[in-house]
Amino acid sequence: MDVKLEPIAYRGGNEAEETRLSRRSFFMAAGAAGIGAAAAITTRPAAAQSTDWTQAGNNNHVLVLQGTTSFANGPVTFDYYGHCALKITSPGGASVLFDPWRDDPSGAWGLWFKNKFPETVVDITMSTHTHFDHDAIDRPSSTMVLDRMAGHFEFADACLAPGWYKWTNALKEFGAEACPPNNVGHMDMVTYVIETGGVRTLIWGDNRPDPADAFWDAVGRIDVLTLPVDGSQHILSYAQADAIVDRLKPKVIIPTHYLNETTTYTLSTLQPADEWVTGKGRFKMLNSPGISLGAKDIADLDREVFYFGNHAATA
């Protein structure tokens, strides 16, 4: 007689007894119970949580970049995937994707996104922190994943919620603190500075508006600043965003973490960034989810906002 074993889920009986059963003893117990156990168990197919191992492709592109000793000059490309997800591609072709998003797997925060993050091909995936809307690092088809990295990496050429929705209060309801020094770990953030093609880009993530003085000294000159700003002032108030811009004096600001109708539901409670953008003296409404910026092209710009609006890359 052929025997086929499949993963099983316990659906009945004593909860305490369930926790004491090992995988082996449960299979044995189910077998001993015979047909009578059918009412207490159901079968389900095995499934891996991550699909990384099924992704097509390999690391040939990274190997080529590693073997390249000189890179051509040229513009840096920015592709926006909605929310805070941004892919930067160097003049030499090395690509880095920041903060791919997903819905909260617990369901506690509801539906934010209309689709799964696309399995876009990229050399490196990075995340600024462990919130669900920034940490779908398994989704991109990526050779390398650098999650919340600190320090210096070189490859190729490359505390209060100020808005109307006080999301920090939700942490208090569960007995957790959002602000230092006793904040929960998932409120710790990382910023990234990427320098390629003569352009220095600061990925702000969800960081607080008032980092220590050492932070400002460390980041140095910034040409392109990504900033989480929206009409609900979910992360930064308009005044906080303005203060960061005035301190760093970047040539270009790219708004992030706002309601993008291509990717994000209104259930997220986010709002568009139009009000803040149009309130700036210099802004450009982009007509696609991608833009190329050369160091010479932006040399004479001063705090000009480049706004992707509802545009977002989908592949």
Overview of this protein structure:
With 315 residues, this protein is an alpha/beta fold. The chain folds into two domains: 8-43, no CATH class; 62-307, Ribonuclease Z/Hydroxyacylglutathione hydrolase-like (Metallo-beta-lactamase, Chain A), CATH 3.60.15. Helices cover 17% and strands 20% of the residues. The strands form three sheets. Strands 7-6-5-4-3-13 form a six-stranded mixed β-sheet, with no helix packed on it. A six-stranded mixed β-sheet has the order 8-9-10-11-14-12. β4 and β5 (95-98) form a beta hairpin. The longest helix has 11 residues, at 23-33. The radius of gyration is 23 Å and the shape is globular.
Write a brief structural summary.
The chain has 315 residues and is α/β, with parallel strands linked by helices. The protein has seven helices and 14 strands.
Mind sketching the topology for me?
Blueprint: E1 8-10, H1 15-20, H2 23-33, E2 41-43, H3 60-66, E3 76-80, E4 86-89, E5 95-98, E6 121-127, E7 141-147, H4 168-173, E8 192-196, E9 199-203, H5 213-219, E10 224-228, H6 238-248, E11 252-256, H7 274-278, E12 283-285, E13 290-293, E14 304-307
Parallel strand pairs: 5-6, 6-7, 9-10, 10-11, 11-14, 12-14
Antiparallel strand pairs: 1-2, 3-4, 3-13, 4-5, 8-9
Number of domains: 2
Order of helices and strands: EHHEHEEEEEHEEHEHEHEEE
Number of strands: 14
The averaged pLDDT comes out at 79
Q: How many H/I helical runs?
A: 7
Spatial gap, N to C terminus? 49 Å
CATH class of the largest domain: Alpha Beta
Q: Structural class of the secondary elements? A: alpha/beta
The main sheet comes to: 6 strands, mixed
Shape annotation: globular
Unreliable segments (pLDDT under 50, ≥5 consecutive)?
Answer: 1-42, 159-165
The share of residues in helices is 10-25%
Per CATH, the superfamily of the largest domain is Ribonuclease Z/Hydroxyacylglutathione hydrolase-like
User: What is the CATH topology of the largest domain?
Assistant: Metallo-beta-lactamase, Chain A
Residue fraction in strands: 15-25%
CATH architecture of the largest domain: 4-Layer Sandwich
